[in-house]
Structures are given as structure tokens and as C-alpha cells.
Design the sequence.
């Protein structure tokens, strides 16, 4: 399921580094895209602002201009990472959650893949977390009441048939494209029988919508035991599909299996727009030191291109990254190395 | 924070094996308690019913009689594990969630401890997950609407100051009793600024309620990165305190670090009642085969006794379990051994 290569004259890629190490890894991803040259159309990059630092400067974490340019002038985008205030700040809310919503990027696709020491050996971990990206507790409908017993806060968790069906389709399509054709539905319907019950039933029912899905095998797991088994026997998973919050937790958990959050890419995908985003956060503790791992962002750029059907360009970037990771000469500290961000980028670009 | 040893004439322990392997591991826990003899008062066991099989038989997963006897005649209880129907079944709802609520067992305390090869070496993993046990999404307020776009389901997530404060106190007290005196507050307030914001602020504010907490150091983690770091560097954690659902996921994740869910105990604790419960599920696939790991239930029995201040009895049980696990001669298949449940129980009882 990808946005088949249109006869695009030009690629306009919005770049939103946002906060912290986003400002180092998004330029790295840009450099990698520039290196693929003629396997993609003429490319223009548009620098855009969002994030906590933007909020501190202009009072809005997601300026209208950013949204408008993304909607009107861009085919796709790369988002870095965002810092959060340590206390609730009036008027601030996460720009990445808002962007997923305004651009209707309803799927968050997070492939987690270990690099095997030898290119001919299959990787030990090879799974995709497909995370619903627009609802669940992320609708952010919250209220606070003051009662005689103190404060009471409530949040709404929304699960719809519509959103569950489209994320289910995306997950089935991704499973179909992989050799194992296996899908695990994640839920907690032993407690949330209505909301997670709806998610589970709806995703399962996708199999009946189209005969092409008939060979996909379906399993399911409660989210708590899914995390347990992910740590104990990751090889049981191929594609996992989950409501928003479980998907958030599961993809971080899966990242722990492959050495570092610094290598795990994602795309936020809708039917007509795709935005690459490394799974890691803004890591303010290492900001500006030229030691952030650029791999997650570079792989996110490849995943974004792959989603737009620029398979060859994506393959070239991924192969270059794998070769550098496998070789172990240029690894950042999170992977046990001592290379600088810029050295890793140079090594990757040379091989693209 | 424990229910100091009252001059109890007698211990009346409710036994609720419930489903699956619960029917094997709860009798094992009973045997272990019987073995401690004079370190606890005269003990009576009361067999009680609950669970999916009970539901199938009498139409109610938690019969009134069970609740009444627990409330009126028992000092404490042991609960096994419960199976869930694979589809929503009218009238069925989880008896463990209901029991926690009706007995106001507001804290779920889950120590996760690895057994070091040598009794003098500190364990590699030694942490406690303190899970709020009465609210969050577990209030089970859900509704389903049929709209022109299909079904829409909503669940309410409730976080109150009252419940956050009492679980916070429990966590601070547990941290105080440990050498590191360190507490990590788990939340996702970058998305749930109102509900998780309230949880975070309230737990933090417990430190100001009493000067005795002044030496406890406090850290915090977003739940997604908490799971990631739990896997990568479990030694950063001492006591973790979390809202209900995050605590459910975190304690399963932590269990993966110590080899098997089959060794991780918990207690559901209120101010006047405590119920031991292994963290594992009902494992219908291995039911009746005499291969379920009894360690989690036996440790849950010890934890229950410890919580009632029968420290010597609890220490004797824990030491016997540790010695059997360390020796590796009697391990069930989940730990890589080939011992039967009954052989493990015999080996433990001999050493109590
Ligand atoms: C920054 C935060 C709002 C975000 C999320 O929870 O979605 C992040 O954890 C992620 O996974 O992209
Ligand atoms: C069986 C289920 C309702 C329960 C829970 O989610 O609390 C279980 O996973 C647990 O951790 O005790």
C-alpha cells in the first residue's frame, strides 16, 4: 500500500527539525536524499518551524504558515523531534500530535529491523508496528473537575470503526507484502470490551473485505502480554497493528530490541501525504554535540520515499545505512561507537 | 507500609484459584503457607469461586457469596488467574478487576527481582512496580454509538487526586524502606496533560506531606521511554509508580527481564485487606499438565504475609524459593527446566 509514483515533476519536501537533536538529524536526512540524485525527481526542500522552541518564540508550537505550506506546497515532509515543557504550560500542545491530525496521517508505520552481521543472514528482529495515529487517548479530550474530595480528571478514549478499518487495511496490505503474511492484532479487550472490542472486531473483519487477504494469518495478543512476548520471543511477530497509545509503547519497546531508539524510523502516512519521523525524542542532553545518531532520520527519509514508490532510491539509502551499521566503524555512542553524527552521515552518503 | 501484625487469633485466607493454571498454583501456595507453621497464627483456608468457568456454570464471574465471605470472614486472600472469552460475552466482566474495586485494594505492588547465582551477589534486576489499581481506563465506563459513519466507541479514563495521593504514599513508603530510596513517576503528560498531569503533580506533592520523605529522590519518565529504558538499563529503577494501565504493561515488561512471568508475584493491597496474585495469566494451553510454574504464586503468598507483617514467615518462604531457583535442579519448562509443578513445590516446602 503506497502512493504509487505519480508523474511527479518535482518533489517538495517540508523539513521540520523542531527541537533538540532534530536540528542535527533532519539536515542529515536531507543530505542523504540529495545523494540519491536521479532516482527521484528534482527536489526542493522547504524549511518549516514547529516545536517547543517555536512556541517559546512565537506563542504557537505549530504556526499556521507551517500547516499551510505543508498542505499547499509539499508532497511530503520530514519531522525531527519535539521537547515538552516539564510542567503544563497554557496554550502549548504537541505539534506532532496536531500535525498527524490536520494532515490526516492516520497510520504510523514503524519497521523494527536488526542488521545481521552478514548480509546473507536474515535479521533476528524483523517486524513492523502499525500504529493508529489519530484517535485513542490522543484525541486529547480532557476535563478537570474540583469536587469535595479534591481534583478529578477525565480523558476520553475514542475508537471508531472508520479509523480501525483504515488502519486495519494498511496493516493487512503491509502483511501481504511480506513473506510471512502474518498479522497480530493488539488490544486489551478483556478490560476495554467496547472500545478495544470494536478495534479488534473491525480489524479482523478487514480480512472479509477483499479475497486478496485470505492468506494473511491473524493472531491477537493483549497489550501487556504482547510487550512481554516482544521481549522474550520477538520472532513470533511480523506485522503488529495497535491502537494509538499501545502502538506508541510497543514501538519503543521493539526499538529496545535492536540496540537503540536511534536507529528506528517511522512514517506518518495518509492517503495523499507522508511524513517521515525518527521514533526517538529530542534528547536535549546530547543536543548540539554532534553525537546524535542520524540513522533513524535517514531511514525515515528512505521509508518516506519508499511509501511514495521511489523504491530504488529507498533501497539505495537503506543499503548504505545497513552497510555502515554492519561495518561498525562509524557508530555513534548510543550504539557503542565514538563517531560523530557528521562522520556517520559522510560514511552513509559515500555509499549511497 | 504494611498492615502491622494485629493480635490476630487466626488467619482466614480466602483461596480463589479461578481458571486455568490458577487451579494448580494456588494449591501450591497453600502448601507453602502450611509449611511455615508457627511463624503465623492458626490458619484456616476458605475455598472460593470466581472466573470464567464460574461464569459459564452460574452466570456470574464473581458470585456474591465470594465477595461476602472475603469481606466478612477473611483477613486476606490468594487469587489465581482468569481466562477471558475470545469474544465479548453479555454479562461477563473480569472478576479480578471487580474484586480490586469492591475490596478497595487500591495498590498493586509487583516486585521484580532476579535471583543472582550466588546469594552474596546483588540481583541484576531489583525493582518494584507500584500500580494504581482502581481507576484509569479500568473504571470501565464505555459507550457505543452508531453514527452515519459507523460505530464509535468511547471509554473514560479517570484519574483523581485522592487515588493518586494514596498510591503515591504507598510508593514513597516502599521507596523509603529500600536502600536506594528512589522513586520514578511514570506518566504520559506530554499528551495527557490534564489526567496524567494530575497524577504526576499529586504523586510528586506527596513528598511535601511528611518530612520523612525528604530523602527519597524522585525521577520521572514518559511511559513509552520508560518501557524502552526498562529493557535497556533496568538498574536505573528502584520503585516505579504508575497509573493502572501503564502499570499493567510495565509489570509484564519487567517480568520479561527476570526470565519468566511465572516467577513474578504481586499483592493487591488496601488499608485493611491484602490479596496475593501471580502476575501471569491462566495459560489454558498448559492447564492440567502439572508443568505450571508455582513460584509466582508461592512468592505472592510470601508477599501477602509480609504485607501483614509476618516478616519471618515471608522470609522463610522467599529464601526457600530463591534457593530452589538458584540451584536450578527443579525448574519448570518456562525457566528451561523439565520439573513438574509438584516437584518444584516439594523442593520448596522441604526448605521452608
Ligand atoms: C512526542 C509524543 C507526543 C509522541 C507520541 O506519543 O506519539 C512520541 O512519543 C512518538 O512516539 O512519536
Ligand atoms: C486479567 C486482566 C484484567 C489483568 C489486568 O489487566 O489487570 C491482568 O493483566 C493483571 O495484570 O492482573
Sequence:
Amino acid at each position: 500500500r503506497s502512493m504509487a509514483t505519480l508523474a511527479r515533476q518535482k518533489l517538495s519536501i517540508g523539513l521540520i527539525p523542531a527541537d533538540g537533536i532534530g536540528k542535527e538529524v533532519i539536515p542529515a536526512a536531507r543530505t542523504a536524499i540529495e545523494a540519491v540524485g536521479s532516482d527521484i525527481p528534482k527536489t526542493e526542500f522547504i524549511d518549516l518551524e514547529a516545536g517547543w522552541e517555536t512556541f517559546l518564540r512565537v506563542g504557537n508550537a505549530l504556526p499556521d504558515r507551517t500547516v499551510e505550506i505543508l498542505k499547499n506546497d509539499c508532497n511530503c515532509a520530514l519531522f525531527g523531534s519535539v521537547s515538552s515543557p516539564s510542567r503544563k504550560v497554557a496554550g502549548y500542545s504537541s505539534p506532532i500530535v496536531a500535525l498527524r491530525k490536520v494532515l490526516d496521517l492516520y497510520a504510523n508505520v514503524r519497521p523494527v529491523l536488526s542488521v545481521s552481521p552478514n548480509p546473507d543472514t536474515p535479521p533476528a528482529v524483523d517486524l513492523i508496528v502499525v500504529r493508529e495515529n489519530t484517535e485513542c487517548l490522543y484525541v486529547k479530550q480532557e476535563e478537570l473537575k474540583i469536587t469535595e474530595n479534591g481534583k478529578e480528571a477525565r480523558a476520553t478514549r475514542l475508537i471508531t470503526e472508520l479509523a480501525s478499518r483504515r488502519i486495519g487495511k494498511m496493516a493487512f496490505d503491509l502483511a501481504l507484502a511480506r513473506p510471512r503474511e502474518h498479522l497480530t492484532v493488539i488490544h486489551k479487550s478483556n478490560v476495554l470490551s467496547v472500545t478495544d472490542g470494536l478495534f479488534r472486531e473491525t480489524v479482523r473483519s478487514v480480512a472479509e473485505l477483499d479475497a486478496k487477504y485470505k492468506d494473511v494469518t491473524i493472531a491477537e495478543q493483549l497489550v501487556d502480554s504482547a510487550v512481554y512476548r516482544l521481549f522474550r520471543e520477538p520472532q513470533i511477530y511480523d506485522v503488529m497493528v495497535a491502537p494509538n497509545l499501545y502502538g506508541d509503547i510497543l514501538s519503543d519497546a521493539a526499538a529496545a530490541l535492536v540496540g537503540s531508539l536511534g536507529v528506528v524510523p517511522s512514517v506518518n502516512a495518509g492517503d495523499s501525504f507522508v511524513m517521515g519521523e525518527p521514533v526517538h525524542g529530542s534528547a536535549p542532553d546530547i543536543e548540539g554535540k554532534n553525537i546524535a545518531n542520524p540513522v533513524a532520520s535517514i531511514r525515515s527519509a528512505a521509508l518516506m520515499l519508499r511509501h511514495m514508490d521511489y523504491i530504488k532510491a529507498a533501497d539505495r539509502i537503506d543499503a548504505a545505512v545497513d552497510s555502515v551499521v554492519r561495518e561498525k566503524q562509524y557508530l555513534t555512542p548510543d550504539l557503542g561507537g565514538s563517531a560523530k553524527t557528521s562522520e556517520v552521515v559522510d560514511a552513509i552518503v559515500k555509499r549511497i
